Amino acid sequence: MGIDHHRLYAETTELSESLPGAEVYSFTPGWEAARVCGKWFMLTTVLKEERIVILKAAPEDAMALRQMYREITTGYHMNKRHWITVRAGGGMSAELLRELVTDSYRAVLGTIPRSRRPLGWERYLA
Fold first, then answer.
1. Which residues are CB-neighbours of 60 under 8 A, at least 6 positions away?
2. Which of 9, 26, 108, 126 is 20 to 30 Å apart from 46, CA to CA?
3. Domains in the chain, start-ordered, CATH in brackets?
4. How confident is the model at residue 80 (pLDDT cuts 50, 70, 90)?
5. Per-residue model confidence as pLDDT tens digits over 46-69
6. Closest CA to 99 of 10, 15, 40
């Protein structure tokens, strides 16, 4: 069974807040973001009365995900190659959503110099 847009928001926010050094905050009315060391790895907003989550993804992964899941499209208001938009629906499981958020966090964390990474980062990058 898929997840609804309320659970989509709750799952992504809860997971983001649990990642080392991550913070979730509202940066403008109607928009929230999660970042690590000052860099975004997740954004969320409501679009046409539907909660959406925007996540970073490797271009080849983003393309494959868009082909596999109708709930995943190009990144809303972001680089269409490096970001994806996730919507609630029958094909979106909590497990897949957690994997997408964690992968987005890893992608951003990997761009941060080791000396600036938060405590506990080793668990997410080999």
1. none
2. 108
3. 5-113 (3.90.1150.30)
4. confident
5. 998 999 999 999 999 999 999 999
6. 15
What global pTM score does this model have?
Answer: 0.94
Which residues are within 8 A (CB) of 76 and not within 5 positions of it... i.e. 6 or more apart? 45, 47, 52, 54, 85
- Calpha distance 99→89 (Å, rounded): 16
Laid out side by side, the sheet with 72-74 consists of 22-28, 31-36, 39-47, 50-56, 83-87, 72-74
Q: Sorting pLDDT into bands at 50, 70 and 90, what band is 43?
A: very high
Query: 97-118: b or e for each residue (b if 16 or more CB lie within 10 Å)?
Result: beebbbbbbbbbbeebeeeebe
- HEC secondary structure over 43-93: EEEEECCEEEEEEECCHHHHHHHHHHCCCEEECCCCCCCCEEEEECECCCC
